[in-house]
Amino acid sequence: MTTSAPNRSIEFRNTTLGATIAVLRDTEPVGLADSLHKMLGGMPDFFNGEAAILDFSGITKAPGRVDWAGLLSLLRRYQLQPIGVRNLPAELSAAARQAGLAILDNLELRERPASETSRTPPPAPAPKAEAPPQPAAPSAPASLPNTLFVERPLRSGQQVYARGGDLVLLAGMSNGAEVIADGSIHCFGPLRGRALAGAQGNSKARIIATNFGPELVSIAGVYRTFEKGIPEAIAGRGAMVRLNDAGNAQTIEIEPQQLD
């Protein structure tokens, strides 16, 4: 199950306000339902109650009407909570307000990669005694990639995002956990849950695991889910996930690896 960006009727982006932007290219619930199923594998808890802003800038031809009840019901099925709309044709604004949506065209939203922060807030830093100012440590050159190491197993509900580089899981992750990296993901242990590499479009990123068994993998926005089970040749074994963009369609390929 793979979906390349040009064929999607809906696309999701995150903002600094914590709301997900759902960029619509179609307003018909039937067509959107098919796209969401292909993208997310029908997993009803993918978004876990996140607020959503519906962006109509991707609509090439303005619809005469929008089935707001069907559209909102579909998004709520995936635990998205629509709160407002952007770039909606003026003639449709009154119906959107009646459906309980705010018009947010004047709200400035800066987009960021999905899941930039963990759902679990970090602990507050302990108070520190005042100390004389110290010389600032020299910063690393911007050209050097970052690698984030996670030494403990990730449990269900936990999220980790490796901004600008690779993510290395030294103890694996459980079902219900989610990891995202702008670069590649390396998992030395059970790979469960959702793993998304190349989050900002790096099609050369990889996902490499010593014990393969995720719910969903993604490279540069192209997804594959495993609701029918992991293929026997790679289930519980070493595997590498990469993006094959040969030809007109991008596809996810998974290759067995001898990683013992």
Automatic annotation (TrEMBL):
Keyword flag Cell cycle: yes
Ranges of residues in domain Septum formation inhibitor MinC N-terminal: 10-82
Pfam families found in the cross-reference section: MinC_C, MinC_N
Subunit annotation: Interacts with MinD and FtsZ.
Source species, domain of life: Bacteria
Region (Disordered) location: 110-144
GO biological process terms, semicolon-separated: cell morphogenesis; division septum assembly; regulation of cell division; regulation of cell septum assembly
Species of origin: Parazoarcus communis
UniProt keyword Repeat present: no
Gene3D superfamilies noted in UniProt: 2.160.20.70, 3.30.70.260
Record-stated family: Belongs to the MinC family.
Biased composition (Pro residues): 120-138
InterPro entries given in the database record: CAP/MinC_C, MinC, MinC_C_sf, MinC_N, Septum_form_inhib_MinC_C
Protein name: Probable septum site-determining protein MinC
Domain Septum formation inhibitor MinC C-terminal, chain residue ranges per copy: 149-244
Protein purpose: Cell division inhibitor that blocks the formation of polar Z ring septums. Rapidly oscillates between the poles of the cell to destabilize FtsZ filaments that have formed before they mature into polar Z rings. Prevents FtsZ polymerization.
UniProt keyword terms in alphabetical order: Cell cycle, Cell division, Septation
